[in-house]
Amino acid sequence: MATLGIPANTIAVLQKYNFNFQKKFGQNFLIDTHVLDKIIEESRITKEDFVLEIGPGIGTMTQYLCENAREVAAVEIDKNLIPILADTLSAYDNVEVINDDILKVDINRLAQEKNGGKPIKVVANLPYYITTPIIMGLFESHVPIDSITIMVQKEVADRMQVGPGTKDYGALSLAVQYYAKPEIVANVPPNCFMPRPNVGSAVIRLTRHLEPPVQVEDEKMMFRLIRASFNQRRKTLANGLGNAPDIPLSKEQIQESILELGVPVTIRGEALTLEQFAALSNIVTAKLRKK
Q: Is a pLDDT exceeding 80 seen at residue 143?
């Protein structure tokens, strides 16, 4: 089978099937073999691994995954790509293509069936509009995951790995860093894709923590606090939390909690570290118990 990482081969497949790119699915196919090699290398896939690929497109990276992994499940939402994938992956007997929306797939069941419940590796080239829901869905559903190696918009990759006090720091940074260790492993310019996107991309590897880096009694409460404090970035932490309907504390209790954390009551949410959010969450949880 012709390697799709070579642009001429990608063009030939698209012409053969008269394929039209779907704006709504944010389709950009990778046409650079160096980048493909780099993704395989950085995802640390071996012949022992079961890999879940999200958004295989015409199968460009899937071919590489099949060569390097024990087994691959590729989840593709666009039904027009299913016959193309049957063709481009016909040489491999270790791949299953699933025509579905990844947000609706029971990944826990998949990991159980294909990998005996052991942690799986996830590889994806994600359109920016769906990056956050997919990553959060994978983490929050407590699917057994070893690592997620994904191609995303450069600014989203930056956002995942920055710390407090920077303009990119936000709920996504904190969520990713609570669940995993993020490392940008490659920057990918627009000319490596077809069609060419308007922005640069990056490959980021998220290695799942065995134990969360902070101790928090109520994970859901911590994420509520985080979301509320970044919902209105220009406001102080006290105002952000005071305006959140799902945090049932009075203004006084919120101010007390912030002072108990040992920071000024005028502080903004973007100045708090993950450790501080965890500590604040534990303070708030204790206050709610006393109610």
A: yes
Q: CATH class for domain 219-290?
A: mainly alpha
Radius of gyration of the chain from its Cα atoms, rounded to whole angstroms? 21
pTM: 0.90
> Which of 53, 73, 52 lies closest to 61, judged by CA?
53
Homologous superfamily (CATH) for 7-208: Vaccinia Virus protein VP39 (3.40.50.150)
CB 150 within 8 A of CB 123: yes
Burial of 144 (0-12, 13-18, 19+ CB in 10 A): middle
Domain ranges in the chain? 7-208, 219-290
Contacts of 144 (CB under 8 A, 6+ apart): 108, 111, 115, 117, 118, 119, 120
State the average pLDDT for the chain. Answer: 91
What is the distance of C-alpha 103 from the center of its chain?
Answer: 12
Cα(19)–Cα(277) distance, integer angstroms: 48
C-beta of residue 54 within 8 angstroms of C-beta of residue 126: yes
